[in-house]
């Protein structure tokens, strides 16, 4: 148990569907991150939130829309996705956005786009 | 461009042997971290070494950092089958974006019973 919970664990959707990924952390952290992990590629940082404010959007296509209603919850809203968006989406958290902080990861959502 | 690169890409050893994985990076860093990922799971933080440190230990793990060569190594001693996983190094971007971690592609370690 890492203290970071992601739901659902698996998601299969068509390109025209709309779905949302959820991340919840019970660690009292104030910074949360979304990463994309594709086969044979390094982990890619997508978004960073610090005290509910977005501090980083790593040139992510607008079909991915993040939402952070409070420091404990992070969502990734998906719409009109492409087959290349199939990947493992990982959420992570740290005490705050600064250097020298180990990141705590959830177990991810395995997303498959039909 | 990719900051951290692990070497080798894959490593297969027998239980009880030591496993060494290497990481090279390109630009100055504040710290370097190592993570483990078991199949189908998220990443787990193992150890963080700061740029002014040369060696750090945690249980059966030993990490070294050579900033002059821009490289780090992770040594797992007396390996166990449960150590089978992918291992990643991650470096911060430095400067004003020092909270951003850049991960390598990882080393897949298989420990055979």
Question: Topology, pairings included?
Answer:
The complex is a heterodimer of chains A (114) and B (113).
Chain A: E1 4-7, E2 10-13, E3 18-25, E4 31-37, E5 44-50, E6 53-57, E7 64-70, E8 73-79, E9 87-94, E10 104-105, E11 109-113
Parallel strand pairs in A: 2-11
Antiparallel strand pairs in A: 1-3, 3-8, 4-5, 4-9, 5-6, 7-8, 9-10, 9-11
Chain B: E1 5-7, E2 10-14, E3 19-24, E4 31-37, E5 43-50, E6 55-58, E7 61-66, E8 71-76, E9 85-92, E10 101-103, E11 107-112
Parallel strand pairs in B: 2-11
Antiparallel strand pairs in B: 1-3, 3-8, 4-5, 4-9, 6-7, 7-8, 9-10, 9-11
Rg measurement of chain A, Å: 13 Å
| Largest sheet report of chain B | 6 strands, mixed
Helix content of chain A: under 10%
Which structural class should the secondary elements of chain A be placed in? Answer: mainly beta
By oligomeric state, this entry counts as: heterodimer
Stretches with pLDDT under 50, minimum 5 residues of chain A: none
The radius of gyration over CA of chain B amounts to: 14 Å
Sequence of secondary-structure elements of chain A: EEEEEEEEEEE
Give the averaged pLDDT of chain B, no decimals. 91
Strand content of chain B: over 45%
Beta strand count of chain A: 11
Strand content of chain A: over 45%
Q: Alpha-carbon distance between the termini of chain B?
A: 38 Å
The poorly predicted ranges of chain B are: none
The coarse silhouette of chain B is globular
Largest interface: A-B, 27 and 25 residues
> Helix coverage percent of residues of chain B?
under 10%
Q: Which class do the helix and strand fractions of chain B yield?
A: mainly beta
Q: Figure out the total of helices of chain B.
A: 0
Mean pLDDT of chain A: 93
